[in-house]
Amino acid sequence: MSNGNNNGNPGKPAGNGGNGNGAHSSHLDDTAANHPTQASPQPPLEVRIGQVMRDRGLSVCAAESCTGGLILHRLTNVPGSSAYVMGGFVTYSNEAKVKFARVSKKTLMRHGAVSEETALEMAMGVRAAFGTDLALSVTGIAGPGGGTDHKPVGLTYIALGSPSGERVVRYVWTGDRESNKQQSAEAALKLLYDYLTSSSR
After folding, report:
1. Is residue 8 part of a domain?
2. What is the pTM of this model?
């Protein structure tokens, strides 16, 4: 977010105006020093993830529900990603969550498909199935229907499974279905990237 100018003249350079004491406006040289070069945009998260994964010889998999494969789609857009992406499941139905991601029926009955507990079990289950170092999972309500007062449209849980344990984060997106799916995929990749680049790793 940018801050507006306090003088009510947006976009007007702040120079030394006349003050009634003979002072003159200073001249600003039109040089590179007065036009800072913008930093180059960083590569997409999936590219940065791939670099770290290859450097460290790590592997990853994913179990996706509401994103429908978007996480794996982005990870595998990177050339050479077969060196670290082992595979994954689109566990859209409860039956698929039980069969492939090893979520217990009791968890689904007690907490529901969109819950912290289900996301954690999905991450642990898919990691065990593929034998990877790391695993991502996501479950949520993409919309436009399906929400309740307790679990609104946009509610999403994203989990990361790793040798040091599991972590889950909760979001409530406010976009349309496509936007919610894209934001969930981005957040999942950010969770993975933050883990990979944290100072404690």
Report:
1. no
2. 0.80
